[in-house]
Amino acid sequence: MRPYFEKMTEFGKPLSDGLKKRMEESVSQIKEVENGIAEAVEKVRNAGLPAETLNKRGEWTVYQRLEYLLDPGTWCPLHTLYDPMDEESGTTGVVDGIGRISGRWAVIIGFDNKVLAGAWIAGQAENILRVTDLAKRLNVPLVWLVNCSGVKLTEQEKVYAGRRGNGTTFFRHAELEKLGIPVLASIWGTNPAGGGYQGISPTYLLAHKNCNIAVGGAGIVSGMSPKGFFDEEGAESIIAATKGFKEVPPGRVEIHYDSTGFFKAVYETEEGILDGLKDLMKAMPAYDPRFFRVAEPKAPRFDPSEIDYIIPFNQKQSYNFDEVVARLTDNSEHMEFRPDYGPEVYTGLAKVDGLLVGIIGNRQGFLPKGYPEYAPYPGIGGKLYRQGLIKMNEFVTLCGRDRVPIIWLQDTTGIDVGDYAEKAELLGLGQSLVYSIEQTDVPMMMVVLRKGTAAAHYILGGPTANNNNAFSLGTPTTEIYVMHGETAAVASFARRLVKEQEAGRPLQPIIDKMNALAAEYTAKSRPAYCAKMGFVDEIVSFGAIRKYMVAFANSVYQNPKSICPQHHMVLPRIIRG
Amino acid sequence: MAEQITAPMVGKIIKLHVKVGDHVGEDDPVVTMEAMKTEMPLVSPIDGTVKEIRVQAGQQVEADDVVAVVE
């Protein structure tokens, strides 16, 4: 299949000086959002105790551990700003992402030991669920940096119980193991109760010399108050008991290395345990990428950061979508699938780090005259029409057949509406795409380049595709909402306006409500909010999208669950005709 | 050879980027048009000189109306 893949069609062109000048203001708006995100990220990194405090105790922070552990330049953080329950630390208490260790890709997660010594805090369980899902979807090892003090007792009701509470992690670990996905743990500090299960539930346990894991902690000096309440006398008794409390924590190294043997190895230093983990990663199953590469890896001919000049900050302005894709694919090459059909949608094969991927996205701007063919009105890019929906169904199905992972680049205002659209079966074709995705077993990643709107956000590889979507990224121009805020304001208050006018009452109070609703939509659809609530898994600059694509493609091809021989692929042959 | 730039659909011209006599490169925007809540530049198909501009900012246009001529 070398003639198909070694040299695909080159596309894209350099930015013109005129375009650069015209986009100056837009680029500065993009940079402003990026600066805001960077500040928020810095705040998360500095949550809890200062790093110096831990370092003085001889401990590294989770960030220092990650830096030592990871192959340089491979870390793709996820969920950095995720804080769906407004935890007082502004974090979920875990740090995670995709990265390479000793040449092998893994999903990596660690407790932020600066925040309440790595406690279970609100929002964390959902974060961990996303991470275990990610390892499952990519079929790569899950690496844990365990340093978990257990439940934040003052907010146990937000953490402990329920179908998706923190305890679910242990079942998820067991599920990964059932699927043959190893969970590797390196363990530091005191890990009682929930922390103990964080320590024992992985597949392979490495211990720092001072760590412990236990069913319960030793920090509880007495049980319930015999009086059923607390008073000064009780408080004095607790003080005395606490001062005299000298018990060493249960489940130390001498128990779980020397006696039970749960710990496979014990290390004296921070470097030592992380070196142990690096060494363990060398034993993980991984194909050499050459086995799956269809060509030698090449950088795009145009810098990915030039996308800043292509995608306008102003959501109303259109742009050339193909120029975006040309800045993300190896040597800016592709093989477009059905270019003359469904012009509002791009579908094509391309290479990322020499690995074959499918790319799907929304073209922007005016569509050719006479399209959509079923209606008397013109079509516009970003919307989805009949042919585009059919084309995506075909492409996804063929990618599934050929085992080609898919990258979605979403910027959509929704699916065409009205009776013409209904007669053209768009409602059915949208759900057919959901069905087509679910019938494949290929991993997908999605980027909301700008707008993610209405049902189109769901069907274009969105996070709702639970079994396929590995992760979703947002950008400085991302906006996710069911409809534009102004549209929502009209939908919500149009009848009320009529009633007020007919009753002879002033319209201004309703107008104020409409403006307030539109403003609220704006505030709750922008990048920082999308990241906080988990609408996307991370906000990245346009220039960083390619790095995540490389991590995604290499992870997917590291140890795939099934394989299509390149010479048995039909999609490239259909494209060539 | 003169090339006409036409409106692809009904809409409104919201901005003129050039004036008669200006040089434009291929794909340089000549006007920006708004239709269906989207702003879209209408670009020069050739490298040349703007010979005519037949619209003003704010003007409504029909599909296939000539908005400018480049030579």
Task: Characterise this structure.
The complex is a heterodimer of chains A (577) and B (71). With 577 residues, chain A is of the alpha/beta class. Chain A has 3 domains: 47-215 and 250-281, 2-enoyl-CoA Hydratase, Chain A, domain 1 (Alpha-Beta Complex), CATH 3.90.226.10; 289-478 and 526-564, 2-enoyl-CoA Hydratase, Chain A, domain 1; 484-524, no CATH class. Helix content of chain A is 37%, strand content 18%. Chain A has 21 helices and 22 strands. In chain A, strands 1, 13, 14, 15, 17, 19, 20, 21 and 22 form a 9-stranded mixed beta sheet that branches. A 7-stranded mixed beta sheet of chain A has the order 2-3-4-6-8-10-12, sandwiched between helices. In chain A, strands 5-7 form a two-stranded parallel ribbon. In chain A, helix 6 (124-138) packs parallel to helix 7 (168-178), helix 13 (386-402) runs parallel beside helix 15 and helix 17 (485-502) packs antiparallel against helix 18. The radius of gyration of chain A is 27 Å and the shape is globular. The mean pLDDT of chain A is 95. Chain B has a single domain (3-70), classed as RNA polymerase II/Efflux pump adaptor protein, barrel-sandwich hybrid domain (OB fold (Dihydrolipoamide Acetyltransferase, E2P), Beta Barrel). Chain B has no helices and 8 strands. Chain B has strands spanning 3-6, 11-16, 23-24, 29-35, 38-43, 48-53, 60-61, 66-70. In chain B, the strands form 2 sheets. A 4-stranded antiparallel beta sheet of chain B has the order 1-8-6-3, with no helix packed on it. In chain B, a hairpin with a 2-residue loop joins strand 4 and strand 5. Chain B is globular. In chain B, 32% of the residues are buried. The mean pLDDT of chain B is 91. Chains A and B meet through loops of A and strand 4 and strand 5 of B.
Please tell me the overall pLDDT of chain B.
91
Low-confidence stretches of chain A: none
| Spatial order of the strands forming the largest sheet of chain B | 1-8-6-3
Q: State the helicity of chain B in percent bands.
A: under 10%
Oligomer: heterodimer
Distance between the termini of chain A: 14 Å
Could you give the count of β-strands of chain B? 8
Percent of residues of chain B in beta strands? over 45%
What's the CATH topology label of chain B?
A: OB fold (Dihydrolipoamide Acetyltransferase, E2P)
Helix/sheet category of chain B: mainly beta
What's the alpha carbon Rg of chain B, rounded to whole Å? 11 Å
Portion in beta strands of chain A: 15-25%
Can you give the mean pLDDT of chain A?
Answer: 95
CATH superfamily of the largest domain in chain A: 2-enoyl-CoA Hydratase, Chain A, domain 1
CATH class category name of chain B: Mainly Beta
